[in-house]
Design goal:
16 strands, Arc Repressor Mutant, subunit A, 4 domains, three-stranded mixed β-sheet
Length: 660
């Protein structure tokens, strides 16, 4: 047998040409298993794979080393000639050639496309065949040697839309970004390499959710800005918030490591190990939530139990290092959306005996230390603090002094003062203890979904009946969004259990009962402008407009209460929270004249009536917002009446307040 005949005999089986094609795409050798998996895609029934490799190697078309198999220079030249012959033969039958997304050249195969439409697009055989025949007819008009899979996909998408099969088109849609989107991010020198990768991944995750997982009606509500979803890239993957009791976790870690807290002091090795075990556990948990983790009982567990208030400055450094470790991890891993809310409120029995000067000194040092870390990352505030108002309601120490001594004055609204200490607010302004007042019990906030009330007002066109009809529909849409989220997370949780990718504690934490019993938050934005649009007067200027605002919130609360009662659910109504998260939604539906006017506060800083009246208005609205609300005061507007304003506020019955 001569040399040519020998090579032609080896190449007489299609699978061997496919092996050459796969190896030709790779710049590095491929190991046996990876190469075999690549072949199985096209030849699933291949049994004697090693025999085919030996045959190709025997004529020196491929070779192998310790790193795996690779194509030889002879193999590359042979493959090049085979592809040219293939092109010549196909062109004789007027069949176009396809350059695939895997950088191979294949003949145009209508049966493959029909199978693709049936399996991926979930089309029946009749429609799949009809689409394929129409595709063939259109492609026959083209005078083109090579087709690409992306061009074929464009033709298929056009035919599907023309036949009112947009749902099928969405199923088949290739999730990716345009060249211009990639280019703008790639060329932006401010974006670091890891940030670029994270950004691209986030955008693709968002597109997959909106185009493939949501039905069109829900996706359109998001696109139009009528419904706001937070952290959209993580929406189908993670719950939003967690209330994590510090004592519970510390006890769990002590039990796991056979530590005795009673015998432990701040200078012991075991205490150092315990602190950093706590830090490592919080870091792991952060990856499973998208919005906020409230570390409850943090002050009682770390400051009081280990008597840090009476120790030297070095003792608090351990807690500071723990928090620094957590923040470093957060920023290094691009967990940008995650907030941490730190509970610095002493228990009732402790607060009576606690020296206010000590509390003030350590809290100020702690907040300033963590603030300096955030500033080093040039980050917006992602740390929030719960403080006990009663400890500042004394002559020796006042809140104004605390604010004056803060390093970062822009973070005033990240400090929330609780008058009612059972009213536990996280940074999303959700009362995480609403359905369970047991402080040792952890709780999950599934998410917070916001309704654009201004968009409702625009559509209602000053018709009260129509306004409430549209609002009712939006609330039902929110319930539907939550049903999808529960289903997404159940599926993810099952996969986590199967793969063992989550820790034992997370398995306990994210069990199905907790997911079913999680808090589901309904909120809103655009209330003042919705009132102005509907009533033609601002909410603060007229009693009837204020009553209409309360009527809106009462309707939402009534529907939520009915849902909770009839279906044993845990829905809550809260006010929006601070941050830039809604600017995009606001800009989608508002004219350029009022762009960016979104305000998370219930009342604007500049009251158009007396302070006492402002408190009454706030309390009327807050009474409806049982799920969480906070009164906000602008320090600059208080002038010299700071203490008087505080006294009025405390006497009015509000549960929590903050400053800006």
């Amino acid at each position: 047998m001569d040399l040519l005949e020998r090579h032609l005999k080896v190449l007489g089986q299609r699978i061997r040409i496919e092996i050459l094609k796969i190896l030709n795409q790779k710049s590095q050798p491929m190991n046996y298993s990876s190469l075999q998996k690549g072949i199985w895609k096209s030849f699933p029934n291949c049994l004697d794979f090693s025999f085919h490799l030996k045959s190709l190697k025997s004529v020196e078309l491929i070779d192998n080393s310790q790193d795996g198999y690779y194509i030889t220079s002879l193999g590359k030249n042979m493959l090049k000639n085979i592809l040219s012959m293939e092109k010549l033969l196909l062109s004789k039958d007027n069949m176009p050639i396809i350059r695939t997304s895997q950088y191979t050249i294949e003949p145009f195969d209508l049966k493959k496309i029909e199978k693709y439409l049936i399996i991926e697009g979930k089309l029946n055989e009749y429609w799949a065949n009809k689409i394929v025949l129409e595709l063939k007819e259109r492609l026959s008009r083209l005078n083109i040697d090579y087709l690409t899979t992306s061009l074929i996909r464009e033709f298929i998408n056009t035919i599907l839309i023309e036949n009112d099969l947009e749902k099928v088109r969405n199923r088949l849609c290739s999730i990716g970004l345009s060249s211009s989107e990639l280019k703008s991010s790639f060329e932006d020198s401010r974006i670091k390499p890891n940030q670029f990768i994270h950004l691209i991944g986030s955008k693709i995750s968002e597109k997959y959710l909106l185009l493939n997982l949501f039905p069109k009606n829900l996706a359109d509500l998001y696109y139009s800005g009528e419904i706001a979803l937070l952290n959209i890239d993580q929406w189908a993957l993670k719950p939003s918030c967690l209330y994590l009791d510090t004592s519970f976790l510390m006890n769990l870690l002590c039990k796991k490591n056979s530590y005795s807290k009673e015998k432990m002091n701040y200078s012991s090795k075991n205490f150092c190990k315990l602190i950093f075990a706590f830090s490592n556990h919080v870091k792991k948990i952060m990856e499973y939530f998208s919005g906020d983790i409230l570390l409850g009982n943090l002050f009682n567990e770390l400051f009081i139990n280990f008597d840090f208030l009476n120790k030297k400055n070095e003792s608090i450094e351990l807690i500071y290092l723990m928090m620094r470790d957590i923040l470093d991890y957060k920023f290094s891993k691009n967990i940008v959306s995650m907030n941490l809310t730190l509970d610095l409120i002493p228990k009732k029995e402790i607060s009576q005996d606690l020296k206010t000067e000590q509390y003030f000194k350590q809290v100020l040092k702690f907040i300033n230390s963590l603030s300096s870390i955030e500033q080093s990352y040039k980050s917006n505030s992602s740390l929030f603090y719960l403080l006990d108002d009663s400890l500042f309601n004394v002559k020796s120490i006042n809140i104004h002094e605390l604010h004056e001594r803060l390093i970062n004055k822009d973070e005033l609204n990240s400090i929330m003062y609780l008058i009612n200490k059972d009213y536990y607010l996280n940074s999303y302004l959700v009362n995480v203890r609403h359905f369970n007042d047991n402080h040792a019990s952890n709780s999950i906030v599934l998410d917070k979904i916001l309704i654009n009330l201004y968009e409702v007002a625009k559509k209602a066109n000053q018709d009260d009946g129509k306004f409430f009809e549209i609002l009712h529909d939006r609330i039902e849409d929110v319930f539907q969004f939550y049903q999808y989220k529960v289903n997404f997370l159940r599926k993810r949780f099952k996969n986590n259990l199967k793969s063992g990718s989550s820790s034992q504690y997370l398995n306990e934490l994210l069990n199905q009962d907790d997911m079913n019993n999680s808090i589901k938050v309904v909120s809103y934005f655009g209330l003042p402008d919705a009132i102005k649009q509907h009533c033609m007067i601002e909410i603060e200027n007229n009693k009837s407009s204020m009553l209409f605002a309360i009527k809106i919130l009462n309707l939402i609360k009534k529907i939520i209460d009915e849902k909770n009662k009839n279906e044993n659910e845990n829905y809550l109504l809260t006010q929006p929270h601070s941050g830039n998260y809604l600017i995009d939604f606001w800009n989608k539906s508002f004219s350029s004249k009022i762009k960016g006017s979104f305000d998370w506060k219930i009342l604007k800083n500049k009251f158009k009536f007396s302070f006492n009246e402002a408190l009454k208005v706030y309390n009327s609205i807050s009474e409806v917002l049982q799920g969480g609300s906070v009164f906000n005061l602008n320090i600059k507007s208080l002038n010299d009446n700071f203490d008087d304003y505080l006294k009025k506020m405390r006497d009015s019955g509000i549960r929590a307040y903050t400053f800006s």
